[in-house]
Amino acid sequence: MLDAVAAAPVTPARAGEALLEVNNIEVIYNHVILVLKGVSLSVPKGSITALLGGNGAGKTTTLKAVSNLLKSERGEVTKGAITYRGENVTDLDPAALVKKGVIQVMEGRHCFEHLTVEENLLTGAYTRTDGAAAVRRDLEMVYEYFPRLKERRKSQAGYTSGGEQQMCAMGRALMSRPETILLDEPSMGLAPQLVEQIFQIVKKVNEGEGVTFLLAEQNTNVALRYAHYGYILESGRVVMDGEAAALRENPDVKEFYLGMAEEGRKSFRDVRSYRRRKRWLA
Ligand SMILES: Nc1ncnc2c1ncn2[C@@H]1O[C@H](COP(=O)(O)OP(=O)(O)O)[C@@H](O)[C@H]1O
Ligand SMILES: [Mg+2]
């Protein structure tokens, strides 16, 4: 009996305790524009959890709600709660959340253009108090995950490629020694081969450093190959969630998110009303 339990496959998505929990949140911009309509998700410790969906689905808004970056956009969480390690962090400011170990890598990879790659990485260590030697060690750790950054360390970030800037933004986040990284659209604007490289690094960091990832991606195909678990957002609602392997095999996901549709991309909602119509006609 015990043997059977021990032998059962346990994915990190199931094994870990929930580190981050988003409970039924609603987000409104400018007091009137309702964008998230009751989003719930759970990110287990040690997992790579993917937040999927097309452009405008609400992925960035969800990440910003977690990291408390909505205020600067005139956005507000008007319902629900966000907890981290069981503690309500809904109204915490971004710096306080970084101290708790949660850091966001923004969409569009923001590096300081006039600083070198290495200077950019070092700015990521600003909240740390464990001394220069530890920071140096972590710089070497970042260079091990991103050998390309080591080659480019003296280059001004503004003159590096899109892929290098994405690596630089991720490396800088790692320099704060985070427990959780909120990673927004790392694939955006990058060639397929580079996207693959970036995701391989995410996986290595997840396995090597135990960093938990909540990863927003439009590129469902690549995200579901590296994530343990996925949530699919449409128009501010979670329409489906499941183990990544199960989502990859799901016919609707295949059809509408993995580019296997015949006539362009539809949404789950279209599928449902289509099926309803079909039932009516039958
Ligand atoms: N600052 C803002 N003010 C008003 N509406 C916004 C703002 N930011 C995003 N939105 C709207 O919220 C919806 C979700 O956007 P976003 O979270 O960026 O989606 P995604 O990251 O999935 O592409 C979109 O309809 C977008 O136009
Ligand atoms: Mg976005």
From TrEMBL:
Occurrences of domain ABC transporter (ranges): 20-260
GO molecular function: ATP binding; ATP hydrolysis activity; branched-chain amino acid transmembrane transporter activity
Name of the protein: Amino acid/amide ABC transporter ATP-binding protein 2, HAAT family
Annotated InterPro entries: AAA+_ATPase, ABC_transporter-like_ATP-bd, BCAA_Transport_ATP-bd_LivF, P-loop_NTPase
UniProt keyword list: Amino-acid transport, ATP-binding, Nucleotide-binding, Transport
Regions crossing the membrane: none
UniProt GO BP: L-amino acid transport
Nucleotide-binding is among the record's keywords: yes
SMART domains, per database record: AAA
Pfam families, sorted: ABC_tran
Highest taxon, organism lineage: Bacteria
Family, similarity comment: Belongs to the ABC transporter superfamily.
